[in-house]
Structure formats: structure tokens, C-alpha cells
Specification:
By secondary structure, the protein is mainly alpha-helical. The protein has helices at residues 3-12, 14-17, 22-36, 48-78, 83-108, 113-136, 142-170, 176-205, 207-225, 242-254, 257-287, 292-298, 300-320, 322-341, 347-377, 384-396, 399-412, 415-435, 437-440, 450-456.
Length: 457
Amino acid sequence: MTLLKIKRHAVQFPHCIRCSKIKPMFKLLLQKFSLSFSLPASDLLRDLVYRRLWTSILISSFGAQITMLALPLTAAVLLHASPTQMGVLIFMESLPFVILSLPSGVWLDRVRKLPVYIVGEILIAIGVASVPLAWWLGSLTMSWLYVVGFLIGAVNTTAGTAAQIVLTQIVPRERLVEAFAKNALATSGSEVAGPATAGALIKLMGAPLALLADAVLLLTSAAILRGVKIIEIRPIREDAHFWRDLKAGVAFVSNKPLLVGLATTVGCWQLFYNAALVVQILFATRILGLSEQAVGLSYMGMGVGTILASLYGNRISRKLGPGPCMVVGVTVCSLGWLLLALAPVNAWGVAAFVVMLACFSIGGVLIFINFLALRQAVTPEPLLGRMTSTMRWLILLPAGPGALIGGYLGEHLGLRYSLGFAGVGALMLALLAWRNPIIRGITVLPGVSKHDQAIVS
């Protein structure tokens, strides 16, 4: 039907549309409909700058779901990687955090954070796009994947730290838990739709080519971030010295029992998480016999868990306190890993795999929305870069050994032993964290102390 015909049809029924009784009723229903979907006046998403950042996180997270499946599936299915090789792949992704975290923190405190964040998105896009290129050229090997994993880890070490600081520059400190919960909600939508989409792309094009979709989404995210406007005040310090500044960041963290307790708890959790992460794709494909698409559909359980934890995580944190909420998160993760370690090889085993993924995402959100908010809340602005990099360095030091332990156990004893090690270890960690008065005693979000503020002023 042409536009002219549409106009003519509209002219034929003016009395129906303009009826004096129907029109006010229609307007009232429309207003009620729009109000039911409107955001509260105080919602963070009403802030244009934060909404742009949130949209970028949503798009980038959707791409990350593709890489999360396509990269290990390329190794496990296409290159027939052993558990030990899978452990080395995860180790290579975590190695840059050990090498670069501390110096990158000093550097970040001297530069604008948003450009670092944007360039990081672009570099990861180039890295993941190199995998299908190498596959097309017939030169794709595990060594190539190790290099790509190292590149992703190196970029996340710098740009990932910058991204967390950018959030602090946009959102008031007292609303950080809410902001991190909303960011987790942004990832939850991608975790529901992303794995199924990734599985379909992998089945249609193959795991390497599916990574091109992530590259496109990352470039889109970078383009959106370019529109974020942040006024960043960086005082010029004539006495700035690299090694002195690096030691100052480490000293700040080591002298705050709260930050030490947080780093110890989350660092140990990272060890057990990486031990389980190494074998979960292998368990799904080689023990349960799932196809690539079935694995993608199973990962939707992770998205459901993230949605639940994102919607109720802030409420649980306010009810229990940030510290106890973290302990609950560690416990939920441990139960998921133990469940899969004992799962039978049938439909119940597939269900256990889905439940494990949901438990991991619920527990992970409960841990990190509180961990990130706590460490940012107690740190003065000039130390944010060094504190963030120091904390990331501390919590990711155990990640590499955890991946190697999980790979070794999986190859020499069986994949279930890696999952059992992760489950039992995380459960013991939860008990120890609960007995720690520093963790158990955090019932409200603290602020920057006057002493710390005076030191940096």
C-alpha cells in the first residue's frame, strides 16, 4: 500500500479517531502504559552519561559471550586440546595481570582513563579477529591461541582497570553497589541470549569465524564510548616518581585490613574458579557428549543466574551487609561445582551442568558487586588507579596456578577431580571467610577515612 493510499484511508475515518469520548480514554491508557515502563526519577539509567556507558557494557558483554564459548571450543573441538593445554590457555590469559597490573596502575593515575578503555576494546577486537584469519590461512595452532589469550589478558589488565575507574568518575561513591548491580544486569541479558546465539553461530560458521561477531560488537562498543563525556581532573605532581608511586599503591592496600581481607578472599576464590573453568567445556563435550550448540544453550543458565543476582543482589547486600553477601556468593559457587562433580552421565547430568553455570553466575555477581564497591568506596580519588591495579594483581595471582592445577588433575585423575577440588576448596574458603571478623563485620558500605584523604591532599 502506497503512502498516498494510506493517507486516503486515514481521511475516510476521521470521526473514529477524533471521537470526543475515545480520544481522552486512549490518551489515558497510553500514559498509564508508558508510566508502567518508565524508570524511577532517581534511577541511574536516567543519567545520560551512565546510560551510554551501560549500553556499551551491554554490547561488549554480548560479544564476550561469543568469545567465552568460541575460543575454548576452538581449542577443545577443532584443535583437540588436552586438559593441560586448556590449563595453559587459561594461564596465559591471567599471566599479564601478574606482570603488568602494578606498573599499569601507576601509569593509569597519570593519564586519562576513558581513552585507555576505548583503545582496549579495539585491541581485543583485533586479537579475536586474528583467530579466524589464522584458521583461514591454515596456521591456527594452540600456540596462536596462547598469544591471543595473552593479548586479551594484557588489554584487560590496563583497559579493564581503566573501565572500573571510569565508572567511579561517573557514579557517586554511595551508589556504587547499585551501579555494579546494574552493570551486572547489563551482562545478564547478553548471558541469556548470547550463549544460544554463539552456539548457533558456531554451528553455522564454525567456532573461529564466530569470533568475527565479537570483533564487530567490540568496535561498536568503542564507538559508543567515544560519546561519553567525562571531566577528569588530574593534578600535576612535580614530585611524581614511578617506583615511589608504585610502592605507595601497594602500601595503601597492605595497610588497610579491609582491602587485605577482600584480596585474600577473592584471590582464593579465583584459584578454585579457574581450576573448574579449565575443565567445564571439556566435561560438557567429552563426558556429557553435548554439541557446540547444546553447550551454548546450556550457558543460558548462566544468564538466568546473573539476572536473578542482579535484580536482588543490591537488596541482599543491604539486608545482610556487603561482607556476608560475599560469603553467600562463595558458598553458592562451591555448591554448583560439587553438584557437577557428582553428576551422572545422562539428562540429569546435563541439568546439573546448567545448574552449575547458574550457581556460578549467582555467586559471582554476589561476590563482585560488593567486592568492587567496597574497594572503590574506601580509596581516595588520586589512588584509585594504583589501588585497583594492586587489588587485581593480588586476586589474580592465584588464577594461573589454579588453572594449571585444574588442568593437571583433569588430565591425570579425571575431570571430576578438578571440579571436586574447586567445590571443596571454595566451601572451605566460605567457612574461613565467615570466621574472619573483618569480612563478616562489613554490614554497611564504608567511605574514605579522613586520614587517607589528608594523606593524598
